[in-house]
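Interim report, section 4.2 (structural modelling).
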Amino acid sequence: MGGSMGPSLLSTQAVALTDADLADMIRDGRPDKGMPALDYQPGQIVALVNFIRRLQRDQGTTDAGLPQEGTAVAPSAIDRGQALFTGAARCAECHSVNEEGGLTAPDLTHIADRMTPEQLLDAIQKPSQSIADGYAASEIVMRDGTTIRGWSRYETAATLQLYDPQEQLWTTYFQKDLVQRRRLSESLMPNGLLDSLTDVERNNLLAFLASLKAEAN
Amino acid sequence: MGARDIRVANEISSVRRAATDSLTPVRLSAVLLALLLSGCDRFNEAIRAVTSAASPVPDISNQELLTAQQDVGQWIHYSGNYRGTRYSPDTQINRENVGGLKLVWKYGAKWHQAGFETTAIAYDDRIYITVGGNELIRLDPAKGTPVWSFTAGPARSANRGAAVLGHRLYMGTADARLVCVDADSGLLLWDRIVDDARLGYRVTGAPMIVKDKVLVGVSANGARGFIDAYDASTGKRAWRFWVVPGPGEPGSETWEGNSMLTGGGSAWLTGTYDPELDLVYWGTGNPLPFFDGDARKGDNLYTNSIVALDPDTGNLAWHFQTTPHDLFDWDGVAEPILVDETINGRSVKAIVQANRNGYVFVLDRTNGELIYATPYTRVNWANAGPGGKPIIKPEIAGAKVRQVYPGVTGGSNWPPKAYSPRTHMLYIPSMVRGATYVSVPSLRVRDNVRTGGIIYWNKEPAEGSIEALDVRTGGIKWSFDTQGPNWGGLLATAGGLLFGGAFDGYLRAFNDETGEVLWEFQTGTGVYAPPTTFRIGGKQYIGLASGYGLMGNGSSGRDQQRHQAIYYLFSLEEH
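Predicted structure of the assembly:
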């Protein structure tokens, strides 16, 4: 869509711009790159910014793909991804970064040292494909028929601890009190976490996660 | 500490050394096999042995908790009983024979900078101490050696003791968890996050059992304080009482704007309970920022208050604020002690609290009305307000530089008081050192905690004493100079005795009516914990944790006390 002279308004770089940056660019132009200053009223500029944002949301992106290893990503994309992490994407309800966030799922402070953006996306889209050590879920059935699910830890021949994330509570169960025990192949991390996000938002979130490297902290 | 540290915090108990000759075969196998034979069938058997109904472990029932004040045998509450009196009816050790009290053994624990503050839980043939906010140790009374020790994780802090119900022990941790372990084996039964330690929360006070619930208050360190109740068997949360109300809630009108949201209000000691009125009483901490009142105009409820709560729901029945709009870090967390006395010719169900602000408050515990307030130490900050309630002098409240007695550690800090129904006296570990407070609104401890000022201690070093106050009249009957600020708690007994350790390192036994010293023992460093008493095999013992903390050292203006954490046990016969 559109001309080929200027860069795409749907690129990662364009998505990463703040609204204020975008507004400034529309008003002042980029004379060095051949884009003229456009003499719009402030209200018109706001409307244009909103329009571009809607395009970015509605159209998704063809070229604003996943952040590539070793390629710089605009800081504002990372900031937006962080806002999603702690906000709409609900990651921080369970995961922590730099000592902020939930305590019930693996800490992601240096996750980019261990996983590429592709692997991260895969892990979010298919939570059960690979489950971090200590976060495998179990289901047990007690003698009284009660069924309990939770993360398990410190299993011995005699005991098993399960974690209830709602209560933030580990409870020890004795194997002798169980009539059934099975390790669940599915993760307790919900499926479809990305469904409510646009592709651009998804990429921003991945840009944030990909920035979580030890040297960056 | 990091989230990862919390997760890897290992709860598996370890046996440092099993005192073999004091253990039954069942206990020995449970303890050793748990460690050595993990994964084997015999381990299964061991676990079954310690968790089955046929276990030889005596359970502590709710009935025993209710009648503990008449019980000479056990020490099963932080404060000895629900009334918070730290009074034992035992007379085996008394004024006539206390001079023959001898050291039985001492046990060296790991020192922590906060000091060694534990109150031991003791019954049957077992003594349980907590160390450094992460360790719960079962000691063998015959040897003074650990039967097992349970480590809750790497984070460390102050800790003042455990609670017991049935066969379960409960301990708060330095990283704001509450753990429940099997009293016999030390095996973890449940482990829950009370709140996020990264926000500043810790649980340093001993939990309290009321009916089927475990109650804990938090040390909030800048976060918003609360008192929680958990189901004692499952660990699920039953209720939470926020010390500082949220916007729009009752009490929020005593905070300007939204200042309540950063308003503090810890509740870091243990409460008391009146089963007849079915009310729990808890002392609450100071508002934040500590010294900049302009940032939180108003009375700042329910900080520095005694709150009366319904133990089933956590609903507030009444409150009494001891220091409205505190400017001096006088958190009013001291235990509200329940006494039945005749005061001004009227028989009253009363609460008596020796508050950090230098006053003793006596309230009607049915409704929170003030009966009287009287200073027990040097104070200069208040005028008598309505009903005799101390009200801050306007010239001090309005100043930016405030010279005040008591200083920031208060006239008496957390160390427990004792009350004897025999003498009608409240015994208070007290200290005297004034300070100058300078309001500097921008000062912070860290990002989310504003101190709002600087404190300069007076040049004179801190003095200290035990003050014996007649609750019926408010008069001081005797006092004893402890040669430095008194951070040692107290114990009264029906043997006509008061026990207390102090800054000078001595544990002493006093005549409870006169303050005459009848016996003393040098522990090697300042005492930072209360003595307790209990019987093992029919014989009365006195137990004491000795180990000074940095708070006491830093505020004393005197030579620093040695670092040690030693638990001492005394009895009338040498071993």
